Amino acid sequence: MARPHRLEPAGVALHVIQRGNNRAACFFGDIDRLFYLKCLAKYGERRGCVIHAYALMTNHVHLLITPSTPGGVSRMLQDVGRQYVRAINNARSRTGTLWEGRFKSNLIDSETYLLACHRYIELNPVRAGLATAPLDYRWTSHAYYAQGAPNTLISEHPVYVGLGANPQDRRQKFLSLFDSPIEEHELAKLRTAVNKGWALGSETFLDRMGAVLGESLRPARRGRPRAEGISSTLAEKNPQKEMLL
Fold first, then answer.
1. Average pLDDT for residues 128-133, to the nearest whole number?
2. DSSP string spanning 16-31?
3. Is 190:116 a contact under the CB 8 Å cutoff?
4. In the chain, which ranges are continuous DSSP H helix?
5. What is the pLDDT of residues 147-156, one digit of tens each?
6. What distance lies between CA 163 and its chain's CA centroid?
């Protein structure tokens, strides 16, 4: 069966998950994570992709990205993968790939789901049992948004900027989103969308993006009814658990 083509239009946010090959680790220590972020900054700039949020786990990565050109995310991750895997293999006297064959991704409607996706990404270590609060885990974008910690990799999305008139107001409004856990039905919606490659957004968003891309973003209606707002295009201590988060 032919693999579905990726939908990466310019100017539309994507939730991306890249997983370790055969559910194995893709990071072996903090130096590896630092180098991965360096690669991400280098090739994100080169390929015109801005990073809004991220979480580096043991066997997978979550990213919230907006490309400036169609297909920019794929090209960026190919570049990152080549440099990162070569360096890790050389340093650890290993061979072969670190990553699954294809990363997972889905289009995000910024007006309705961007902040929900952002929160989902930064809470990943908490769900994996690696931290009791988002700030307890170093390898996400949360410290930038919660405390204003320096992070040159991050570009604030216009939806985040619109939360307040100044950085303090924006920070307080953003942090209020973390006052309660993500409800199970919302978790299921976000997980299903990225793992299936389904666009996640309002009916207006699906219609608009369908017109831009020249194809329907609505899945065939068969089997169980699809979750509302989803359309076609879903631990270091416990790596197996991380695969679901």
1. 95
2. EEEEBGGG--S--SHH
3. yes
4. 30-47, 72-92, 110-122, 124-127, 142-147, 158-161, 167-176, 184-196, 203-213, 239-242
5. 999 999 999 9
6. 21
How is residue 170 written in tokens? 């924006």
As a whole number of angstroms, the distance between CA 120 and CA 115 comes to 8
Residue 204 pLDDT exceeds 70: yes
Sign of CA dihedral 27, 237, 149, 158: positive
200 pLDDT higher than 60: yes
Are the C-beta atoms of 15 and 62 separated by less than 8 Å? yes
Quick: pLDDT tens for 19-64: 999 889 999 999 999 999 999 999 999 999 999 999 999 999 999 9
Q: How far is CA 186 from CA 129, 162, 232, 235, 238, in A?
A: 19, 23, 17, 21, 23
- Is residue 88 a contact partner of residue 32, using CB atoms and an 8 Å limit? yes
Domains of the chain: 14-242 (3.30.70.1290)
